[in-house]
Every structure is written in structure tokens, then in C-alpha cells.
């Protein structure tokens, strides 16, 4: 069974750690002076620094636990990170002093060490306390202050092992083992402290690891309904991670569905990270229906534009290109018509995301019912039937109606085709018929209705 002491809070864990490390300072300092062991004295100094560091961590953890207020809208978690950085800097200073003193003794040949039962007892006591601190801190969560103190406890345990090795070598007659152990210990502490300072300084500057960013982006994009993730921002404040991102959803989704998609993103990120605060900005994506609605909304704002049709949406590398026909009041002059087209093009490019170019073809709008006369020219009717008969896919031409209005022929046909043909195939066939008719009758309007047979 694992020995894991579960504590109610990181504050309690840091208090226990402070009491334990204070006892180590007293025991190792006493034994080091009596045994004249630099390794023991260095470890005692290390423990003293740890005690001071733990006090700082305890203070910053208390301050960092305060809830957000008017001056700290993200909370006070950065204070805790600052405490972790100070702890790392103190450990770095300790490592420098220890390496300097140990190297000086090693170079001077001052190996006055008298290892005895007291020294070994002090080392064994310290190792026991270090293990107790490790167990206590491991069960106290993952805050930066607890992690920093746990790192100190682990380094204490390692340094105590090195001190034990130095005493063992001295007892075997190699007195240089004690200062040599001090050098090794100092270098180890320097490496660990540099890592701590680097990690906390990056966090204080709001740096985020590329791996975490990739995981967050992947989680967002895997959420159902999300088509794009943009402007992802991540920062850590204490134990909490703040995520701010824009997501793109289909432009035709309803407001409640867009909200549901954002909620799913928040839930997935919470499952990934845990303590997280997520802000999601939802933007509409580009879809045919969305673009058509937007263009119609803009054109309805202009009184002289009566309707639009034949909208084409083209996706190019630089973005979306649009082209459509706009029917305008026939009473306006060319300058006014040009201004309308220019205004529409600029407004659509500005207000529809992703649209880079707009082409507007203006047509005259004819209000009311067109006056027409039925065409009774048998030669024209015969030509129409002959053209249709050249397309063998059309089984029968059931009905034809031909009118004349405004100098144009309006040809309306009812055709029967094989019921098994797809809509796409039928459309291609009827388009060919329409092209052939317009080649014979230029400037005509052709509409063909299809029925299955």
C-alpha cells in the first residue's frame, strides 16, 4: 500500500513542510559543526534556504489564493508563480555558494573531516524527513508553490544521498569525497533551480508551450459544429488556465445552436485541462445560404434595387469572389446606377467575412404584369419541336407554349424523361436543349419543365 498523505489544502502541506525542514536545519547544522563536514554543513545551509523559501511559498500561496477583485480581475495567482520564481532564485544562489566553498576546500586540500555516528545519524534523519516531505507535498495538488517546494524536497533528498556518500568515502579514508560531494550537489541544485526559474519566468510572461497550444487547438477543432479555430490565446494564472479563442461555425446555424457549440467547446477543454476559464467568440462561416441572405439584406437597404438573382459564389486562394445580377429602377441614370453598384461592392466586401471581390451586373426592373401575345407561327413551332427531337434522352414533348413580349420570344416546354435519370443528368440534358433553342432564336427566354416517365 502506498504511503500517501492526503491533505486538505496546499497551505497545510506547506506548513507541515516548513516544520519538517526546520528540524533538519537544526540537526544537520549541529552534526556538521561537530563532524567538520562541509557536505553536512552545505546540506544544512540548503535546508535553511529551503525553510526560508517554504516560508515565502507559504506567504505567496496565501496571497495567490485570494479571489479576483477590482484590481486583479484574473485573480492573484501570479503572486504564487512569483513566489515559485523567488524560490528558484534562492536555490540558484545556494548552489553557487556550495560549489564555490566545496571547490575551494577541494583545491586547498583542506580535508579535515571526522565522520562518526553523529554525522551518519544526522544524514539518516534528514533522509527520513525528506521522504516525509515528498509524501506530504505529492498529495497536496499541482500548484506552482507546491511543485516548487516538492522540487526542493526532492533536491534535499538527492543532496542528502550525496552527503551520505561523502561521509562514507571519508570514513574509508578518502577525505576528498566530502568536498567533491559538495561540488556535485551544488551543480545538481544549480540545474534544478535554473529549470524552476525558467518555467516560472515563462509563466509570468504569459508564455505557453507549443504542445499545450496544439492540444487545445485540436480539442476545439474536434468539437462537433466547429469548422475553424482562430486567434487562440492561452495564459496561466496560478493553477487556472485562461483560454480565449474565436471559432467559426456554419453561417446558417441558429443562435441557440451556436451557443450549444460554444458550450461543447468549453466542456471539452475542461475535460482536457481541469481548472480552466474559457471565453469563446462565435463567428459565422461562409455558406451559400449565409452569403445569399447577407447580400439580399444589403440590397434591400437600397431603394433603387428591386431584386437580385443569378448569385455566383467563387472560392479562390485569396478568398471569396461574388457575382450577381441586380435589377434596378429603370428611371435612374447611368451615374446613379454606377454609384449603386460601387456602393454594393464595397459594403459586401466590408461586412461579409472572407469576401474579397464583388461583381454586380445591373438590369432593368420591370414592375407589374407583362403584356404578351401567343405566337401562332407554325414554322417557329415546327423548329422548336425539331430541335427537341434531336435530343433522344427526351421521350416526349408534352406541351409547348410560345409568347411574344417586349420583342422577345418566351418559350415554355413540358418534357418527359426517363424516371431513373438523376437530377444532375436531367439538368445537363435540358441545358443543351436550351442552348440549341437560343442559338436558333437569339435573345429568347427558355424555360423547360421535366416530368418522369
Describe this structure in words.
- The strands form three sheets. A four-stranded mixed β-sheet has the order 7-8-9-10, covered by helices on one side.
- Strand 1 (228-237) and strand 2 form a beta hairpin.
- The protein contains twelve helices and ten strands.
- The longest helix is centred in the N-terminal third of the chain and has 32 residues, at 77-108.
- It folds into four domains: 10-204, Cation efflux protein transmembrane domain (Alpha-lytic protease prodomain-like); 210-284, Cation efflux protein, cytoplasmic domain (Alpha-Beta Plaits, 2-Layer Sandwich); 288-364, Alpha-Beta Plaits; 373-452, 2-Layer Sandwich (Alpha-Beta Plaits), CATH 3.30.70.
- The protein has helices at 10-35, 38-64, 77-108, 117-138, 144-171, 177-204, 210-222, 255-273, 288-300, 334-351, 378-389, 423-440; strands at residues 228-237, 240-249, 276-284, 305-316, 319-328, 355-364, 373-374, 394-405, 408-417, 445-452.
- Helix content is 57%, strand content 21%.
- Helix 1 (10-35) runs antiparallel to helix 2 (38-64).
- The model is unreliable at 1-8 (pLDDT under 50).
- It has 453 residues and is an alpha/beta fold.
Amino acid at each position: 500500500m502506498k504511503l500517501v498523505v492526503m491533505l486538505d489544502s496546499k497551505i497545510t502541506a506547506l506548513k507541515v513542510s516548513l516544520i519538517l525542514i526546520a528540524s533538519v536545519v537544526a540537526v544537520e547544522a549541529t552534526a556538521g559543526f561537530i563532524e567538520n563536514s562541509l557536505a553536512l554543513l552545505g546540506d544544512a545551509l540548503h535546508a535553511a534556504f529551503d525553510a526560508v523559501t517554504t516560508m515565502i511559498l507559504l506567504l505567496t500561496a496565501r496571497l495567490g489564493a485570494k479571489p479576483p477583485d477590482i484590481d486583479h480581475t484574473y485573480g492573484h495567482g501570479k503572486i504564487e508563480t512569483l513566489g515559485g520564481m523567488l524560490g528558484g532564485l534562492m536555490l540558484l544562489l545556494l548552489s553557487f555558494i556550495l560549489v564555490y566553498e566545496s571547490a575551494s576546500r577541494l583545491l586547498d586540500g583542506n580535508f579535515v573531516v571526522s565522520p562518526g555516528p553523529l554525522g551518519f545519524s544526522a544524514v539518516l534523519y534528514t533522509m527520513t524527513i525528506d521522504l516525509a516531505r515528498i509524501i506530504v507535498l505529492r498529495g497536496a495538488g499541482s500548484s506552482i508553490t507546491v511543485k516548487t517546494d516538492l522540487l526542493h524536497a526532492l533536491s534535499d533528498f538527492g543532496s542528502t544521498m550525496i552527503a551520505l556518500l561523502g561521509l562514507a568515502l571519508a570514513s574509508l579514508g578518502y577525505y576528498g569525497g566530502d568536498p567533491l560531494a559538495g561540488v556535485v550537489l551544488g551543480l545538481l541544485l544549480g540545474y534544478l533551480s535554473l529549470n524552476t526559474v525558467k518555467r516560472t519566468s515563462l509563466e509570468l510572461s504569459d508564455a505557453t508551450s507549443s504542445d499545450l497550444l496544439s492540444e487545445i487547438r485540436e480539442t476545439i477543432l474536434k468539437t462537433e459544429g466547429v469548422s475553424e479555430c482562430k486567434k487562440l490565446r492561452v495564459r496561466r494564472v496560478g493553477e487556472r488556465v485562461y483560454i480565449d479563442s474565436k471559432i467559426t461555425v456554419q453561417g446558417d446555424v441558429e443562435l441557440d445552436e451556436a451557443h450549444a457549440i460554444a458550450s461543447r467547446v468549453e466542456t471539452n477543454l475542461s475535460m482536457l485541462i481541469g481548472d480552466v476559464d474559457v471565453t469563446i467568440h462565435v463567428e459565422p462561416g461562409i455558406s451559400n445560404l449565409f452569403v445569399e441572405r447577407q447580400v439580399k439584406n444589403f440590397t434591400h437597404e437600397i431603394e433603387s434595387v428591386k431584386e437580385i438573382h443569378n448569385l455566383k459564389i467563387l472560392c479562390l486562394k485569396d478568398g471569396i469572389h461574388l457575382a450577381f445580377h441586380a435589377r434596378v429602377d429603370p428611371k435612374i441614370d447611368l451615374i446613379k446606377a454606377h454609384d449603386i453598384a460601387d456602393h454594393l461592392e464595397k459594403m459586401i466586401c466590408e461586412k461579409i467575412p472572407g469576401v474579397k471581390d464583388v461583381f454586380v451586373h445591373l438590369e432593368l426592373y420591370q414592375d407589374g404584369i407583362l403584356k404578351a401575345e401567343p405566337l401562332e407561327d407554325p414554322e417557329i413551332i415546327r423548329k422548336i419541336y425539331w430541335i427537341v427531337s434531336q435530343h433522344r434522352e427526351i421521350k416526349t414533348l408534352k406541351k409547348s407554349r410560345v409568347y411574344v413580349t417586349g420583342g422577345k420570344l418566351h418559350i415554355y416546354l413540358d418534357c418527359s424523361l426517363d424516371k431513373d435519370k438523376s437530377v444532375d443528368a436531367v439538368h445537363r440534358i435540358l441545358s443543351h436543349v436550351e442552348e440549341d433553342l437560343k442559338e436558333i432564336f437569339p435573345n429568347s427566354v427558355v424555360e423547360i419543365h421535366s416530368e418522369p416517365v
